[in-house]
Design a protein that fits this description.
Helix content: 55-70%
Number of strands: 4
Low-confidence stretches: none
Radius of gyration: 20 Å
Largest sheet: 2 strands, parallel
Order of helices and strands: HHHHHHHHHHHHEHHHEHEEH
Oligomer: single chain
Protein name: Fatty acid desaturase domain-containing protein
Number of domains: 1
Number of helices: 17
Distance between the termini: 46 Å
Shape: globular
Keywords: Membrane, Transmembrane, Transmembrane helix
Pfam family, one: FA_desaturase
InterPro entries: FA_desaturase_dom (IPR005804), Fatty_acid_desaturase (IPR012171)
GO molecular function, one term: oxidoreductase activity, acting on paired donors, with oxidation of a pair of donors resulting in the reduction of molecular oxygen to two molecules of water
Strand content: under 5%
Length: about 325
């Protein structure tokens, strides 16, 4: 892409204090209203409306948290840290999560990446690797990675349990620095206080059910952002950051009524190419690029039907260059 166009894009679509303030204040109003609705109707049948609404608002809260980690939500790094940490306390996720997420951007689709990081966050094995596993482990992995478990049980385990153990699980890409330790302590302390308040006001179950479904939706979205066909999986010499965004990240056709809650993350191809563009500007950025360049010609567009079908993609087949299901791998191994 021409450097002048790239400069224009950032100038037009980067965050500003005004745009961030407008988005965050309105979000706080909507989030607070959804929490109040859950409280007011905690013993009413109307909870079937208020709890799903809180689920969607928590999803948007996570996307603000995510943008703060990229330092894109506001122009100020310290302000991003404060907002991100505050959001993280509602999401059972320390702000240091973003160090791990940063590695995802540097390695998505790079099967030989120098960081020794996962080339896919939701696909662990190629077909050949899977077929070479011990039969017992193979069976356990198939149970774990089947969509019924992976998109229902694993989200709970990841957010409700693993995020409490950040320090114990620290490694090369998520080092336990002093700042990380402080962040972890603050996040868990805030979480404990919040959970007590929810319990005291009789919305403990309501809130945690809402957040559980937020985690499930998040897992489904994240899987579909990078797991689709044709797949973008390359060795280190062929992989590029730009192609990882344009060919290895999808454009999900989210229904219009959900767009406020997904905050532009469906334009994931733009996000991976331009991480400093905030989610609330991604749609405008996408439309501008589509109108003025040919950059988006090869972007994979996913319908909601595609999103569902992709949940059954569990392995990567190197011979065909496609993500495949367990049943496909078994047929190939006959």
């Amino acid at each position: 892409m021409d450097a002048s166009i790239n400069s224009t894009i950032y100038k037009k679509h980067s965050s500003s204090y005004w745009s961030a303030a407008a988005d965050f204040l309105f979000h706080c109003f909507c989030f607070g209203s959804s929490m109040y609705g859950v409280y007011c109707f905690r013993e009413s049948i109307l909870s079937i409306i208020t709890v799903p609404l809180l689920t969607l608002m928590l999803l948007r809260t996570f996307l603000i948290f995510h943008d703060c980690g990229h330092n894109s939500y506001t122009p100020n790094r310290n302000l991003n840290f404060i907002i991100g940490s505050a959001c993280g306390s509602f999401l059972m996720t320390p702000f240091s999560w973003n160090s791990k997420h940063f590695m995802h951007h540097l390695s998505n689709g790079n099967i030989e990446n120098p960081f020794k990081y996962q080339w896919s966050e939701t696909i662990d094995y190629t077909v050949d690797q899977y077929n070479k596993l011990h039969p017992g482990y193979k069976m356990l992995y198939r149970i774990y990675r089947g969509p019924l478990i992976f998109f229902t049980v694993v989200p709970f385990f990841n957010f409700f349990i693993l995020n409490r153990l950040t320090i114990l699980l620290s490694n090369g890409y998520n080092y336990a620095s002093r700042e990380t330790c402080i962040d972890w302590v603050i996040n868990n302390t805030c979480l404990a206080i919040q959970q007590y308040i929810y319990y005291k006001y009789s919305i403990f179950i309501h809130y945690n059910i809402a957040f559980y479904f937020t985690c499930v939706i998040g897992f489904i979205l994240f899987h579909n952002q990078h797991t689709f066909n044709p797949a973008y999986i390359k060795n280190n010499s062929e992989w590029t950051l730009r192609e990882s965004g344009l060919e290895g990240s999808s454009f999900i056709m989210i229904p219009r009524w959900l767009k406020y809650f997904t905050m532009g993350i469906e334009y994931h191809h733009i996000h991976h190419c331009m991480t400093r563009i905030p989610g609330y500007n991604l749609q405008e950025c996408n439309d501008y690029i589509a109108k003025n360049t040919r950059m988006l010609e090869n972007v994979v567009v996913l319908s909601m039907k595609d999103v569902f079908n992709n949940l059954f993609l569990t392995l990567y087949d190197e011979s065909s260059g496609k993500f495949v299901s367990f049943s496909y791998s078994e047929k190939k191994n006959l």
